[in-house]
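Write out this protein's structure.
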Amino acid sequence: MSKLSVICGKASEDLGRKLARKIKANLVKSEVRVFPDGESKITLKGNISKSKSIVVQSIYPPVDTNLIQALSLISKAKENSSKVVVVIPYMGYARQDREFLPGEIVTMKVLAKLFKGAGASKVIVVDIHSLIGLKSFTIRTENVSAVPDLARFFKKMSLKNPLVVSPDQGGKERAKAFAKEMGIEFIALQKKRDRKTGKVQIKTKQVDVIGRDLILVDDMISTGGSIVNATKFLKKEKCKRVFVACTHALLMNDAEKKIKKSGVTKIISANTIPGNTSIVDVSNTIAKAIV
């Protein structure tokens, strides 16, 4: 039996399989039966290593279901293995990392206790929305980035005088890293979000993007509001094509359709969340954090 086993949650089957191949681990699959009341019953198929297990499960919608399944897999892994490394490619609740308005619960603090209580030795995440959330954990954590993988993908494309654009100032460092990887320039737009309504407005007045192919870079796309606003603004500034590069493509409520309608040529995301756009594999990046 291999000294390593990858226990693959239903939310991350493809990524789990690729990771197991990369690190030459024994693959343990999950079979999930969801009862009419919404409860999940998980059955594992395969041999769990006694020394070290890697649990792979993204926490995307349905977030609470995938979270409970992740915790259940960790608990089962801990019964068999002395060490349990948990890979959460997309960490749900990462935006709830501090008290923005009085009375708000910092859910990331709750998650930190749950992962430790279930038996995790280390938690690996990919491009978490904010590193502040990881400070709540008392076990080891590591945030790896999909930016180099995404940038390498775009480097192979035939782009006209490309420019990397961050839809807001918060993503400036990400855009800078992406542009550096590609050896091109970057800019960051200014936006304002209403904390209560969630409505987003572009505050930048003017940019010089005439005739250039643009790569809008973000860590995650949920409803696509920021991307739509940024694309409309950039199209008015007479850019050429607009591509979207993101790690986590949640694409809720017809977001993909709205983004394409706003003028985006193509959305390219990592396989942290499975979907139409998830064509950039991050298993190698995750593998480096495990071994």
